[in-house]
Amino acid sequence: MSGPIVGRARELAVLHQALDDTKDGRGGCHVIFGPPGIGKSRLLLAAGDHADERDIAVAAREAFRHDLAAPLVTLAGALRACSPPTGDFAWLSGVDDHPTGNYAKIHRLRDSLERFAAAQPLLIVIDDAHWMDELSALAVRELVPALASFPVRWLLASRTQPADTPGGQTLSWLSQRGTPIHLDVLDDEATERLCVERIGARVDNTVLALVAGCGGFPLRIEQLLDALLATRQIMVADGIATVVGEDLPSSFVATVREIVGSLSADAQRLLRSVSVLDRPFDIESGARLMGSQDPAELFGLIDEVTTSGLLVEDQDGLVFRHALVHQAVQNSLGNSQAQLLHGKAAVLARERGRPTAEIAGHLLRSGRVGAGAAVEMLRGTAAGVAATAPATAADLMLQALQAIGEHDPARPAIIADTVGLLASAGRVSKAHELGIEALRAELDPATRATIQLGLAEAFKHAGQNAKAAEFAEDGLNQPKIAEDVRARLHAVRAHATFYLDDLTAADAAGAEAARIGREHEPGAAVFGLTARSLVAGAEGRLDEALGHASRATELADTVRGPALHRHPRIWLANALIALDRFDEAEQALRRGRQESDALGTAWAQPLWHYHWAALLTARGRLDDAVAEADAGVTTAEQLTAYQLAVPLLGTLVKLAVLRGDPDQGRGLLERMRELLGTGITAAPEDVIWPEATLLLAEGATREAFALLPGLYDTAVERPTLIVQHPGIAATLVRLATAVGDPGRAEAIAASAAGLARRNPQSHAAAGAAEHAMGVLGRDPRRLQAAVQRFRLSRRPLALAAALADAAELARATGTAGDRAGVRGWYDEALGLCASAGAHGLRQRLESGLGAWLGAVLPEPPPDQRETCLPSLSPAERPVALLVAQGMTNIVVARQLNLSPHTVDSHLRKIFMKLDIRSRVELAALVARECHG
User: Where is the HTH luxR-type domain (predicted)?
Assistant: First the structure.
């Protein structure tokens, strides 16, 4: 569309303000929705022009349907075409050959974008973004929030109802977290202005009455006016345009046909020939499709069709001016014409080395013979992209299924493969629908078991463990199945039944997965061993938990390949934390996260955050733990791994209570309940205990106790909660005593004592037992023993709780003599709470013993008070100072041994606390307040 943009003053103002903000150092994202022909592309061009005027670099690209099977092609294409040109993204030209996995590519792209944006603001524009390839869509989910503190602005345009593609899902996700721009049709005033601009003269009512039939769609109005001008049905007299003649075009398709009909016969044939192509084309391709041997013969025809406005030239070649124009021309082809042209296009695409999905797409539309070849190509392509783009691979297989029909003998095997791909892509309902369809048919046992494995993995991926276990068991009941499939079925069943609280079944299935998998499927063996580690940990057999996780890690390190993708160091760190071996746990987490980044295994990212948060909580670094858990929730939502968000939200609820913010905890609990309402299941320690903790903080003692009978009654066999949080044993004893249930109080004390006996090397377990028995029997010697044990465990919050209980008992029984000893315990407990950021626990201590002792935690001496950014926590301050020095988030993460997601989380809180919106403002604030 040439000339000034009409009727979009409000939308332009929003985009201009956004770009002015970007110039000032602030990032963000805008999604533009609207039906075809409404003017989205013109708005993007106008935004690009404004960015250029503001010296903002522009990286723009239109996404095409065939992008779907080419990993990162959409973003890579935009950034490689960055204006002004830059070498920062040159590595993207070989991205398909890069040896690392998907998440590693995104991490590298983030690094490149951070470094570029540190020097120059950037606008990234993607038109028809619903056609983004799967890896680009994942990258956008990751990078939009990650780069929010940088001057990087994203503009993504899509049809009003995005396609159910990875790109469409990403746009919906982004629009839920922002305020999308919805383009409406032009009003009468804007329509009249557009007519004046297009014709170059004022218009009368004959013109306005005719264009009213275009419904306010700018493209339709322009095409109608072009048709009228081409057929000389618009006359201008005395500066006013009027319509003359009869049989005037009224619909958009008729308008396009009118324009096409005004062209020469050869020009019309060129348009119809190239209409079968879904990407920009060159003159040689047009000549081949027309059957011409000399591309030079098309020069005059190209001029004719571009002058008509139906085709335009861009950086990639010739393309239809708009998808609707393309569709209108394409619809003019007869069936036999279309089949012939698609056959030629398939040959041409193969010669040009186009993606096999594109070739297969043409073959599918070239007739029965071509469709048969297309099915094989689609299956081959799906196998090739399954590791990098499972959703795209699944879509390719679904196309193959549509092509072969319901009774083709190859259909069951294709369904089996497709169900597995749908599982990997998290498309549970479609996997279930397709799998059930196949299972109704007569299938051989091997194919039936493979389909059931895919269904089990799909439901496990979605956190629906009951269905996952059911399908895994059904698969295992087949009489003859391959051993590798059998091992994988056992592994899935082991993890599913663990979260269904059937520990015996989980351990047995894990053992079978390990036994069979060592020889036939090492990845399944690793996964089975990690399930056994979880079971042993839940039952309080901590050495065995460590042993299983260690063997899983050794096996993965030895065989590598897919086994390493199971990331057993997640569960190794979990076992080490339970045994108070924090330094070793940190090493395991650090190495495991590095491996995960290198392998590009996105699924593991939320779990690393979860276990980092657990380690930091045990060490009493609550601010860091919140940042890790918050980053984990963000990552889980970006990956649509909502089942992993549940335990992370539970962690954040518990941390909110410890830090004295129950209101925030209530909001987090509601988010967790919403996810659980979808059918996701999780361990009770991750779901029930956070809610009970919140109720206790709000004084609802009986309501909290009412949630916990299951935890009390299974505590001896399943002391998981005490393993995770040793200080909780005494809390549970105190709660049961307070509501008049001494039997359950004794059960918790017995559980803690049994845990200590089974794990004599664990200071935390011994501390939990002494603490619980001390509270149960009001025994000061046991409480003092708990204090000593917790000192050795290096768990400051458990120590603070034991010190507080010892002080409280001394006050209540009068065994402290003078108050000096009690004051020492009390002050130490307050100091530990303050250092950890446990303001909620500190407030509870002050409301109890504080009133009796008349003491509160003293303010630090003036020379020890933090004068630089005092509103920030000790975890946030170093992040703020390094960012203010000009370091990118990735560099800050390396400097502080954090993940980039954790730095992002800290930075969001820093901006909120300091009421700033950009790194530039942060640097100015630090310079003013910290350096004079």
Answer: 865-930
